Amino acid sequence: MQDRLSALDASFLYMEDPVTPMHVGGVAVFERPSAGFTYADVLALIGQRLGYLPRYRQRVLGVPGHLARPLWVDDVDFDLNYHVRRSALPAPGTDDQLFDLVARLVSRPLALERPLWEVYFVEGLSDDRVALVTKTHQAVVDGTGTIELGQLILDDTPAEAAELAEFEDTWTPRRQPSRTQLLLDAVSETVQRPGELVNTAVGAAKDAVATVGKVTEAISGVAATLRSVARPAPEGPLNAPVSGGRMFSVVRTRLEDFRKVRAEHSGTVNDVVLAVVAGALREWLLSRGAALTSDSTVRALVPLAVSDAETEFSSAGLVGNEVAAYLVDLPVGEPNAVLRLQHIGHAMSAHLDSGRSVAARTLLRVGGFAPATLHSLGARAANSFSGRFFNLVITNSPGPQVPLYAGPARMTEMFPVLPLAKNQALAIGVTSYHGGVYFGLNGDRKAMYDVDLLGGMIEEALDELKGADW
Question: Where is the O-acyltransferase WSD1 C-terminal domain (predicted)?
Fold first, then answer.
């Protein structure tokens, strides 16, 4: 039985182009322990875990004539050193240098003739820190058969160096099917399901409209959940042609601050996160000379985990439950911070009232660093939907409030890096971890040249909410 890409996974390959690569990234910063944490340790750690993720040793193989969707096949030339790469920052190794490197790395598409992922081990950070920068294509992470690599390499206890030294790779790839076999299997499937040939031809022609329509149906009935889908998103500087360059900026905040705002004004922590982003976008738009009125909005596509009524939520079935895309109009024209929060809370209440929302405490029980996978699934949901209907993507996934380790090294920070879609100049990922809330802002280098300014405004918007009285 051939392991063929699903229609959804294939669509992410069909819709990709050089300036909008469709991979999700992450930046994890670690303290280097006294015993050391080297590139060889990272190679051993990832090599040990790849046995649980067969997809990370497989590549995409096209079918001649596009008679069927591509296949997943074992990479007979798999080279772990190709996928796990070593990099270093020049002295003094500042965070700004790290995030400039991240922007350059995530702007480069993954090689389609290889397994669709990369990890960069970055040394030279100040205070004897190191970083892992990950890139994983959206066609790879489906949350069921394959989770994000960051979820698998992090543990709640440190490993001894000797445990990593024991690694010995004994994997043997399966033989790749011949061209004749590919054609025979494709013809056989076409006879059994003639509709597949039509769908495949559409994908091969890269008909984005038809592909997105097919994908939208696959993502948990998105159209049924989006109440404002009938009208396009407001026009503004966030919807601009995307170039090949990126700007990446981060914001560090404390989870306790969001909890205090929630306790004072009700709602959820996610409502507060969205209200903070709305406040920052308001100030940013004003800095760009935008003429805001009381009715001005910015529409965010917010992927949220929802539960299947017949399936218990678990790490083995993240998508068996679902990640659904919701459109939320952020009230950037409202000058009062508390009223902005109330508007957002009301808009999000429909999701909560559906009875299908997955509580943060449930997500925290998922093994490993589940936000890495959930951000990937959120990006899949977002990029399956037409960009005409939203201005930016915001994913927010709660993480564990205890330290996690890659081998012997303790992770201190984790920043998501979401991909940009066509004409979408900004994407924001948010993750909470060990008392912190970490924002990753990925912007187009031309359209979002001032993404650092927006990052500072996020901190100011949180301070505004913390000090706001009703």
Answer: 320-466
Instruction: Band the pLDDT of 373: cuts 50, 70, 90.
Output: low
Q: Rounded to whole angstroms, what are the CA distances from 325 to 69, 303, 321, 360? A: 26, 4, 13, 17
Give the whole-angstrom CA distance, residue 343 versus residue 13.
37
Joined tokens for residue 418: 């979401």
Q: 435-465, pLDDT tens digit by residue?
A: 999 999 999 999 999 999 999 999 999 999 9
Residue keyed to tokens 């000058």? 335
Considering just the CA atoms, what is the radius of gyration of the chain in Å? 22
Each residue of 59-95: b (16+ CB within 10 Å) or e? bbbebeebbbbbbbbbbeebebeebbeeeebeeebeb
Map out the domains of the chain as residue ranges: 7-165, 221-466
Fold of 7-165: Chloramphenicol Acetyltransferase (3.30.559)
Sign of CA dihedral 324, 414, 122, 247: positive
Closest residue by Cα to residue 360 from 400, 315, 308: 400
CATH architecture of 221-466: 2-Layer Sandwich (3.30)
The model's pTM: 0.86
The CA distance from 74 to 328, in Å, is 41
Q: Sorting pLDDT into bands at 50, 70 and 90, what band is 467?
A: confident
